[in-house]
Amino acid sequence: MFNFCSKFILPSGLFFSGLFLSPNIFEIFNTFELSMFYGFLPSNILSLISIFPLLGCFVILFIWSQGKGSDLLFKVVAFVTSAFSLVFVSFLVIAFDKQATGFQFLYSAVDLPVFNLSVVLGLDGLGLVFTALTALLIPLCILGFWNSKLFSKEFCISFLVLESLLFLAFFSVDLFFFYIFFESVLIPMFIMVSVWGSRARKIRASYMLFFLH
Questions:
Q1: Which residues on neighbouring strands pair with residue 20, listed in sequence order?
Q2: E strand spans, 138-177
Q3: Which residues are bridge partners to 111 per DSSP?
Q4: Can you tell me the distance from the alpha carbon of 20 to that of 99, in angstroms, rounded to the nearest whole number?
Q5: Highest mean pLDDT among 26-35, 139-148, 154-163
Q6: Ordered DSSP codes for 56-67
């Protein structure tokens, strides 16, 4: 009975509750004026969204270090973390000024005066689309692999690290850091394909990493 609940009822309940609540959340926040909602968001909202999936990784590692938890608990932590990321990105979608041009939510996260570099985060219309797609697809992918026997704590951590790096790539204003974060996405992707993929996929992953990039 417990296995049936963990494999079918729990992921189905999480999926349908998300479908039920998302229209209500958008309806509530659409009642606010755009300017008031924009002022409600902190200035470092992009950096908070970027590092939030890493908090889920630390929670999984902490539970694992205590010798507790199970694969089901790690799946729930990963899904809840990605679901909250989706909610935070929904705030960005609502507060984003569609009439304005250029980057919005600009924030200087890290300054490196020695190298004359600074990590500046911002969001434009194209980055908003890719960010929303990332925030939507990651929890759906976690639910899609819910009943897989290969879904372990390492797989959950790889998914959350991938989400964090994708957010940083889409938020990066500077081309140099966009390149760094975009290429860093290959690391968790390569780990997931090479460790949990089939033999043909492992060979293809090695080819893509070492020859195409």
A1: none
A2: none
A3: 118
A4: 30
A5: 154-163
A6: HHHHHHHHHHTT
Give me the amino acid identity at 36: M
Model pTM greater than 0.85?
no
Question: Please, what is the Cα angle at 52 between 37 and 69, to 5 degrees?
Answer: 135
Token output for 79: 């899904």
Contact between 30 and 93 (Cβ < 8 Å): no
Report which of residues 137 and 44 the model is more confident about: 137
Pairing of strands 104-112, 117-123: antiparallel
Question: How far, in Å, are 2, 31, 38, 62, 175 from residue 159 at the CA level?
Answer: 26, 34, 30, 17, 24
- Distance (Å, whole) CA 101 – CA 48: 23
If residue 106 lies in a helix (H) or strand (E), which one and from where to where? strand 104-112
Query: 178 near 172, Cβ under 8 Å?
Result: yes
Closest CA to 87 of 168, 159, 26, 177: 26
What end-to-end distance do the CA atoms of the chain give, in Å? 47
Cα separations (Å) of 18 from 3, 100, 117, 129, 156?
Answer: 22, 31, 40, 20, 20
**Which of 38, 78, 39, 83 shows the shortest CA–CA distance to 61?**
78
Task: Find the DSSP H helices in 33-152.
Answer: 34-40, 45-65, 71-95, 125-144
Instruction: Report the alpha-carbon distance of residue 52 to residue 18 in Å, rounded.
Output: 19
Who wins on pLDDT, 81 or 198? 81
Q: Which residues pair with 112 in a beta bridge?
A: 117
Residue type (1 letter), 79: F
